[in-house]
Amino acid sequence: MSNHHPRPWLAAVLSLFFGPLGFLYAGRLVFAILFFFLTLGIRILAFVTSGGVSLFASIAELACWLGGAMLAWYLAKQRPAREPRWYSRWYGMAGVALALAAVVYLSRLFFYEPFLVPSSAMLPTASRGDRLLVKKLGYGHLSINTLLLGRLPASNPLARGELVVFEDPVKRGQIGFKRIAGVQGDEVAVRGGRLIVNGRDTRIAELGVYRGAGGQGAQVAYLRMRERLGDTVFETLVQKQGPAPLDEPMAFAMRERCSFTREEMRCAVPPGYLFVLGDHRDFSQDSRYYGFVRSDQVIGRVVGIYR
Predict the structure, then answer these.
(1) Residues 6+ apart with CB under 8 A from 56
(2) pLDDT number for residue 139
(3) I need a surface site. Which of 16, 135, 178, 272 has the fewest CB within 10 A?
(4) Which residue has the higher pLDDT, 261 or 299?
(5) With contact defined as beta carbons under 8 Å apart, do 307 and 117 qualify?
(6) In the predicted structure, residue 1 carries a pLDDT above the cut 50
(7) How many Å apart are CA 61 and CA 35, to the nearest integer?
(8) Alpha helices, DSSP H only, in the chain?
(9) What is the DSSP string of 196-263?
């Protein structure tokens, strides 16, 4: 087979399309792998940091993208004409690129996946647009970007107080992000902004006033409360002037396990289901409205919140 001299311009274009490709074409397999993990590390840094560090990581990612194209161009220009190695051929480049992409997507499918907080329903714990890192291993939900590919038996139990991401029961194709208020066998009551689980009030202290945006964007004063569910201590918000009346709930499955008044909702959580609530009690659409969430709808448990 004849010798071949890589075209520098093509190496640069391939690198701009997908960083490692330009290095593979230039015959530099080690550079391709190192560049992939360097850019992956910078993206992770940008995800888990905020402020100046996150901005620096974003600038560094752009610099790597452009610098990688220039370096691939230079390496291709300096490489003498020779028989191309297997990874410099089209099928080799495609195979290596697919393998590297598989590392990312299989990690998201089975182990951890990032999400954005979809609303302000979890204030003060998390704000709209905050980034979530969700552990999927052990919860059996095989999905990427909410596209469900399959389910496996769950091996990790779900506990009261945990933050979970799940398939939104109302907005199909979107995520819900709430706190587990009750698991199967629990009796859960929400009364006047207070959560009572198995006859025990979860509120343990009033912390003062929290000011945030209301429904029309105007600043509204809320009361910040400290609550406990199991071993989890967290904060919630309720309206300072008193709790809003409960909205009329949907006709959800097993609604007969709940009783309703304008001031209280009381439910017995059935096997295989969860009762979830937002921490922003008067601004959250949750199990008070759409009912129980099936345990197999849980995508995973939130292990990190980044602002």
Answers:
(1) none
(2) 96
(3) 272
(4) 299
(5) no
(6) no
(7) 11
(8) 8-17, 19-25, 29-48, 51-78, 90-110, 287-290
(9) EETTEE-EEEEEEEEEEE-TTS-EEEEEEEEEEETTEEEEEEEETT-PPPPPPPP--TTGGGEEE-SS
Lookup: tokens for 115: 């999400």
The pair phi, psi for residue 22, each rounded to 5°, is: -60, -40
H or E element in which residue 175 lies: strand 175-182
* Tokens standing for residue 53: 């560090």
Segment 35-62, tens digit of pLDDT: 999 999 998 998 988 877 888 888 998 9
Q: What confidence tens digit (pLDDT) does each residue in 159-202 have?
A: 999 999 999 998 888 999 999 999 999 999 998 778 999 999 99
How far apart CA 182 and CA 179 sit, in angstroms, is 9
Q: What is the pLDDT of residue 50?
A: 80
Q: Note the pTM of the prediction, 2 decimals.
A: 0.88
Angle at 87 between CA 110 and CA 77, to 5 degrees: 125
Residues 114, 46: contact at Cβ < 8 Å?
no
User: Is 45 in a helix, a strand, or coil?
Assistant: helix
Distance CA 177, CA 197 (A): 20
- Please state, in angstroms and rounded to a whole number, the distance separating the CA atoms of residues 59 and 206: 43
The b/e string for 200-215 (b: 16+ C-beta within 10 A; e otherwise) is eebeeeeeeebeeeee
Average confidence score pLDDT of the chain: 90
Q: What per-residue confidence (pLDDT) applies to 154?
A: 92
Q: List the end-to-end C-alpha distance of the chain, in Å, as a whole number.
A: 55
Label residue 96 by pLDDT band (50, 70, 90): confident
Q: What SS3 class is residue 128? A: coil
